[in-house]
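thought: fold this chain, then report.
action: predict
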Amino acid sequence: MDRSDEELMLAYRGGEPRAFETLLHRHGKGIYRFALRFLGDRMRAEEVMQESFLRVLRAASRYEPRSSFRNYLYRITRNLCLDLIRKEPRARVQADGTGPCGPGPEDLPDRNPGPDLCVESEQLRFVIFKALQGLPPEQREVFLLKEVKEMKLQDVADVTGANLNTVKSRLRYALQALREELSRGGIRKEIGYGL
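observation:
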């Protein structure tokens, strides 16, 4: 029987190390990809992922399942990303949309795969990647959590610490900015991500 994240965290707290390994296996890749999209830098995303799980480990003795473990973990990751952005206010994204360690449009999922859309999809992901890097951090995080990580709006509010109306507003502004950037990139059709 698969145990919930919360049950695994409580089991780890109770002395079962493999429970934490399961949590790492379940969420490690998602946390890394969230940090990568948020920061645009593979090395920093890896550091954030590791630090996120280290913080969970350090706080394990105090863990109480008041909200979902997933939200708890993404809240830690989000805060670490914001701390890095505050320390380095100038984004390190190059003109071609890649950071110094190489993340690029291939790191965005393609929700419309198909042989006839391959070239168009690559161009689209590149434009979306560049547009994401241009969003203010509070809009970028809401977009990534809602549209890419497919969290419910209330969970996004829980992770970001913002009220539900603020989350809706930030998402609306993010989508509007992304639509405008797509239009400037010559892409005018409706696409995934709710755009």
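thought: worth noting. The chain has two domains: 1-98, 104-195.
final: tokens above.
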